[in-house]
Amino acid sequence: RDFDFGGFSGSAEGDQDLGYIHGKLRAAYLFDMGHWYAKPIVDLDATWISYGDVSEDGGDGAGLDVSSQEDTLLSATPMLEIGGLWEMANGALVRPYAQAGVALYGDTSLQIDSQFLDAPGGTPSFMTETEMDNVLADISVGLDVLAVENLNVRLSYDGMFGENTQSNAGTLRLEWRL
C-alpha cells in the first residue's frame, strides 16, 4: 500500500487471508415454443466473506493493524432468457441465447476497522467503509454448439453494470468427449 498524507509518505506491506462461501438457489420455468424458448429465472444468492487480520510491515508510522471482519451479501436477480435450438445437417445442436435481468442487493456496505501501529496508547481505531452498487444490470449472450465430432463449444459474454460498477467477462469453453 502506497500512501502520502499528513507528512507521511511511503509504502507498507502486509498479507491478509481472504475466504468466501457462495450459495445460489435458482427457480426457472421453460416455455417451449418449438425451436425457440423463453425462460424466466429468479436467482437468490448469498455470499459470506471473511477478511483475516493483518499487521503491515514498514510504513514509518503509517503502517496499519487491520482487524478481521466478516460480511454477508444477499441478492435476488430476476431475469429472462430467450434462446433457440436447431439441429444441423451433421447432427450438431446449435443453441444461441440471450439473458437480461437486474441484480438487487441488500446491504452492500463493507467495513474494515483499522488502527495505526505506531499510534500512542488509547488512540481510537477508525473505520473504512466501501459502498457497492445496490442495483446492477446483468446481461449474458452466448452460443453453444453441441456434439460436432465429439466436440462441444461454448462462446459467451457476461456483463454487470451499475452506477459505479462495470464487469465484463468472456468465455470460450471447448469440451472433447471420448
Mean of residue pLDDT values: 91
Report the strand count: 16
> Which class of secondary structure composition applies to the elements?
mainly beta
Question: How does the major sheet shape up?
Answer: 9 strands, antiparallel
Helix percentage range:
under 10%
CA-based gyration radius: 24 Å
Structure description:
The chain is mostly beta strands and about 180 residues long. It is about 0% helix and about 70% strand. It contains no helices and 16 strands. It has strands spanning about 1-5, 10-15, 20-30, 30-35, 35-50, 55, 55-60, 65, 70-85, 85, 95-105, 110-115, 125-130, 135-150, 150-160, 165-175. Strands 3, 4, 5, 9, 10, 11, 14, 15 and 16 form a 9-stranded antiparallel sheet that branches. Strands 6-8-12-13 form a 4-stranded antiparallel sheet, with no helix packed on it. It starts with a strand and ends with a strand.
Q: Can I get a quick summary?
A:
The protein has 178 residues and is mainly beta.
Q: What layout of secondary structure does this protein have?
A:
Layout: E1 2-5, E2 8-13, E3 18-28, E4 31-33, E5 36-51, E6 54-55, E7 57-58, E8 64-66, E9 69-84, E10 86-87, E11 93-105, E12 109-116, E13 126-131, E14 135-148, E15 151-161, E16 166-176
Antiparallel strand pairs: 1-2, 2-7, 3-5, 4-5, 5-9, 6-8, 8-12, 9-11, 10-11, 11-14, 12-13, 14-15, 15-16
